[in-house]
Fold each of these.
Amino acid sequence: MSTFFTPAFWCKILSMHKPMDIIHQNQLSLKLTEISIRELLFINDTPIEIFGFQDGKFKRILRKNAFINKNTLRDLLAKGHNKLFVYVEERGKLIEHVQSTLLSVTRSLSVGNPVEKGRKQMNLLAINMSYLYQHPTDDDILKLQHQCAKNLAYFLIANVHHHEEIYQGFIKQKHHFIYAQPIISSLFVLGIFKYSQLYSDQEIENYFITSLFKDIGMSAIPVDKYDQDELNDEEKELLRKHAEHSINLLKGRVPLSPNHLTIINNHHSFSLLTSELSTSIIGPNDKDIVAGFETMIISIMDIVSAMISGRPYRKASNLFESLDLIKLLIADQYPQEFRQIVSYFKNFFRG
Ligand SMILES: [Fe+2]
């Protein structure tokens, strides 16, 4: 054995590499930014390199243009890669790739299995919602979200009997509630207006869009703050004014009539004055607001979708509990409408 390749030699080489490795890791920590694993769920390949973080080190786990499917992602999660990263300078390429997939699914909604298509479109819409909340003044993201939401509304109106399956497929992905809740409540809004048989498809589509964009003003607060059960005073004030902020963000950018903007302004009219939701998160209710039937439905569907989905600081309620609260809120003023809501949900959750 050559004296040159002794264990002492390799130890020396390894110890020489260690500082280099530390420098490289430090550089990566400055150059990488975290992404959500959901961004990879509905695309077929990665336009850029994807990194994981394991044993205190960043590690490339997917090369550029790597084919990905559910098994790839399942394997990554099984290996403990629940945090994924990309180069900051390449972040935009992944967003573009996800958005072009959203557009392509939107354009082919009527082709193939409607449940699969609806589920995929709603999930991609939730991901684009996250991009929108991060960049609420970006016209391209807003325009894409609006166009895809209109197509989704059209598709959902034609596929009412698949709503529950699409809903179940959507909630499985556990998107952050800030992005998921407007989509779920808008699905319910569309369903109940269709169920009532009082509105044209065009009117239903407009209420769907109104409901979907009503909370864009919540983007004024970083999303991770909503995971806390208590916001500071400044954040509470921003949240209290989120409907107003939504209108400022939407006016002149999304074709919503003054009536629809008024609905957005009043979309918390039916929150309970004494509930945890209204006092600590939404802010005091204005009891003098005279809200019409459409505002009531949009507000109530928002409450139901909030209650039946969990939060980091509280468990999800069941549908029965949420309808019990809705009864308290509207049954005296709107007895017939309350019965219709109960009947709608009974029909929705047939299983
Ligand atoms: Fe809201």
Amino acid sequence: MPDQSNALLEKLLQSKKYRDICPDTVRRVWAECEKKYKKPKDVDKAAREALHGITGAFMTPEESSQLGYDMQQWWCTKTDTGLERMLQRHASTRERLPLASMDALYGQIFGIANRPRSVLDLACGINPLYLGARGIETFGVDISGPSVAAVNRFGEVYGMPVSAACADLLCSGAIPPRRFDMALLFKLLPLLERQRAGAAVAVMDAVNAEWLVVSFPTRTLGGRNVGMAAHYADWMAAHLPLGRAIADRFETENELYFVLK
Ligand SMILES: C[S@@+](CC[C@H](N)C(=O)[O-])C[C@H]1O[C@@H](n2cnc3c(N)ncnc32)[C@H](O)[C@@H]1O
């Protein structure tokens, strides 16, 4: 039985769909499913279902390779149009465009919390590309290999002040202990809670930053507004980390933001 289980886990780690996801995540989800099911085949099925829910289709392989080309183009001209094209390649940054809206969003955050010198972007996707292009030193963490690779490429090849690590926030050692001026947790907490009850507060508690900026989606994937803002506002009020206070709360077209001091 353990041999069959190991073989299935190895196959899952090498599979086209999950080979670019942080291996710690695949192993963590597998171990969680092993606690619920006895037969290796049932564990495999449950693990695949759980991973599908976590990883989502934020950036397709085509978008990821297009992003490499966009980056090269942006480097030649450094225009906002080029930056916007890059940010289009990931579902989460795409939702915040046009770039003027993204500038306004950060203008509002930095109006309350001051422009940070260092940012920790948890479950970053490709959001650090925006911050780096605006000259803000950013360290990102994500389980998505292609997102992390894009951020590191922007830093290493194009000299922008960004870097990232492929790590799972539910595994130990993923959150850097050093102090940051600001930490971003954009559209992350509901995803973490779904993966492990209580994880959202644990992650907020573990972050070493003067300011936490947390966001929640306010529309379903189909674009409907079904009262998510009120639901997440209640959730935030009930789960405020010890020693933090809400300095600002505002809504954009698709997201609800909290700036926590
Ligand atoms: C909705 S996207 C948000 C991306 C980015 N924060 C933004 O708003 O532009 C959620 C991100 O969380 C990442 N993610 C999901 N579970 C994670 C975990 N356990 N640890 C680290 N990242 C995770 C996904 O890979 C994905 O990039």
